[in-house]
Amino acid sequence: MVARGESPGLTGADAAARLEADGPNELSREGPRGILRAIAEVLREPMLALLLAAGTVYLLLGDREEALALLFSAGVVITITLVQERKTERALAALRDLSSPRALVVRDGERVRIPGRDVVVGDLLVVSEGDRVAADARLVESSHLEADESLLTGESVPVRKRPAEGPVPAARPGGDDLPFVYAGTLVVRGHGLAAVHATGARTEMGRIGAALADIDVGRTPLQVEVSRLVRIVAVLGISACLALVLVHGLRRGDWLQGFLAGIALAMAALPEEFPVVLTIFMAMGAWRISRSRVLTRRLPAVEALGAATVLCTDKTGTLTENRMRIVRLWAPGCEEVAAGAALPEAVHEVVEFGILASQPEPFDPMEQAFHRLGGEALAGSGHVHQRWTILREYPLSPKLLSVVQAWRSLGTGEAVVAAKGAPEAVTELCRLDPSDARRMQDRAAAMGSEGLRVLAVARATHAGELPADPHDFDFRLVGLVGLEDPLRPGVPEAVAECAGAGVRVMMITGDSPETARAIARQVGLEVGSGVITGAELEAGTAEEIARRVRDVDVFARVVPEQKLKLVQALRADGEIVAMTGDGVNDAPALKAAHIGVAMGGRGTDVAREAAALIVTDDDFTSIVAAVRLGRRIHENLRRAMAYILAVHVPTTGLALLPLVLGWPMVLFPVHIVFLELMIDPACSMAFEAEPGDEGLMRRPPRRVDAPLFTRRVLLVSALQGAAILVASMACFRIGLDHTGNDASARAMAFTTLIAGNVGLILVNRTWQASVLSILTTRNWAAWAVIAGAIGTLAAALSIPFFRGLFRFGPVGLHDLLLATGAGIASLAWFEILKLVRPAWLRDA
């Protein structure tokens, strides 16, 4: 039943009508992309079109074995790509789940608990300590009500709530004494009744959801560069392919064979491996980063992490533990002491009456801090009164910024009264003379300058009936308490490592400038350029913001839109931005950054779904470890891509030059598929497993516009590939002359190509050390790839079915040794170059 005098609320019929008109109290979610649409997008890749075309031609010609091999390969590529493409964004779904808790409402004069999605405008919400608010609502009545709005504002300290006298316009969250509660926030103290005025997408949380939907994530620089290179080489390859078909058809009159030769050339020339290998490389990098307790939601962020130049981090829950702890105590007549298990007797009373001014089973973080310290320092001292009962509570109000509670003590007829609150409010309660008040205020200001939350504690005794006004008690000042949200272990060292790596750390918080400045000093951030507040950001122009963010590392009193504005300003200034966060308020900035990094333990579902990376242990040092791995991944990816470029030279040459010279075809589509699906992606795994350089975190981030493929890398790759091409063509010619059988010559040329491929893996694992030192470096993936390539080649040369599929003829032992030696020896010049070690090679 409702309490006496309480409104009967909506009727069931009214609620049903409003639910039908306004829709459920939840955020709309984006529908999943259909499987047919996803497959259609995958089939846009030219390599898949070529595979399917070649497979269809061979099927029409009756060559079922080769047709099935090609079509099966296309199916494998499509499956792998679909698995990666199906990693869609779920941020709005997470917002929907968080914003629709169970709710206690008044309907038809009864208090009933309903699903949060069924709450409608006009409902009367009953909110109590520990409840998640179901919708935006205006308080009708309340008692001691405080709410944690850090999900929306970033402020770590709960805010007071009180009903307004008369109508008031709707207000944004943040600050004390507002008559509104907001969907998704948590009631940490007291209880109240509130009339719902906004549900679903019209709530403050819904507004954040709309901001998420409107943000364009964009692509990383590497994705842009690889796409551009693929387009350039594809145009050249397709042009050469068409020319070959025309030449073959006109000169030999065999248009069908010319078409197959053209497909083989296109498959050899088109660098479709780049996006495939990039995806596999990023997936392996994501797995490796997960071993450092960082999960990957968007694979391109793995590579981008190594290029990060700015790391924007929230304070609450990221740099700090998001819990309050008492660290300073002061009592009149004694020195300030640090809180701990062994407290001097002089400050025991401060903790004792701080506990008495708190709830017996507190939900508020500050009251929990009093109870924790009391359990550690006052056990068995007689200052803990578990059997006392509360006689009366005097709640916080604009006229009294303190909590007062009267207790029935055991063994006396007097009530014991405890108060805690803002120092100025307790000064008023104690009626301190000016000199004592000034002394206490100076001590409180000193604590506050260290970023501490300062509370004053007072006591009184009273005989007889309790007064209505707490000012009527004869209070005596007991002391001051300084609370902090402690730093996470290892944060200063992690910030210092970022500085050494050239990664700028910026703290963006909803807390006060004083608190932000104090925390910045503790973690080692530069505060000499001052602190910028959210109000200053709001008043500044885009040009002013862009200019100031170059020098200032600490931002305070920042609301979600301003965080997003900061990230966008940094991106516009050419920075690669990583943003950490854990609250709903962080989600738009997490999504807008190049790399959004969410806290997995304390973070909200919204932050985790909006981010590209999730730190499972909420440890700032794990983020730094991920940056280190990101740099290693990029360095190894560069070597892998150089290898791919090098191996394309001989495959393209072997598909084109024999026909230009009037020789038989060397490579058919099945050979190209073998190289691409069995060797190229696997080699990316081998390069990914290379250990990183010890000096990775002592280098500045690579330039944003630095290409993956420099001229030096392109030159070295081209020379390596040309050397293997010459060796393969020579072995093919020797095979033709020696055996007179183009199938046997093809087997020799292909053996040379595979041997050269193995040599490319070994020499390109590093450009600084010789192949002899590489052989002693542990890399099981590389050896597995080499063994797999040799084993598959042996099967193709010896097993009749595979020999027929590859169109190989018999080859003698001496011919095989010649072909293998030629492939390996073709790269000896690069090993000699390593010994000389020119500067341009060391820097490449």
Describe it for me?
The chain has 33 helices and 22 strands. The chain is an alpha+beta fold and 844 residues long. It has an 8-stranded mixed sheet with strand order 8-22-21-20-9-17-19-18, with helices on both faces. Strands 1, 2, 3, 4, 5, 6 and 7 form a 7-stranded antiparallel sheet that branches. About 2% of the residues have low confidence.
Number of strands: 22
SS content category:
alpha+beta
Can you give the helix content as a percent range? 40-55%
Radius of gyration: 35 Å
| Low-pLDDT segments | 87-100
Shape: elongated
Tally of helical segments: 33
Q: Layout of helices and strands, plus pairs?
A:
Elements: H1 12-22, H2 35-42, H3 46-60, H4 64-85, H5 91-98, E1 103-107, E2 110-114, E3 124-128, E4 136-148, H6 150-153, E5 159-160, E6 180-181, E7 186-198, H7 204-214, H8 221-252, H9 255-269, H10 273-290, E8 294-296, H11 300-305, E9 310-313, H12 315-319, E10 325-330, E11 337-338, H13 348-356, H14 365-377, E12 389-394, E13 402-408, E14 415-421, H15 423-430, H16 434-448, E15 453-462, E16 476-484, H17 491-500, E17 504-508, H18 513-523, E18 531-533, H19 534-539, H20 542-548, E19 554-556, H21 560-572, E20 577-581, H22 587-592, E21 595-599, H23 605-610, E22 613-615, H24 620-660, H25 669-688, H26 711-739, H27 742-764, H28 771-775, H29 780-798, H30 800-806, H31 813-825, H32 828-836, H33 839-843
Parallel strand pairs: 9-17, 9-20, 17-19, 18-19, 20-21, 21-22
Antiparallel strand pairs: 1-2, 1-3, 3-7, 4-5, 4-6, 4-7, 8-22, 10-11, 10-16, 12-13, 13-14, 14-15, 15-16
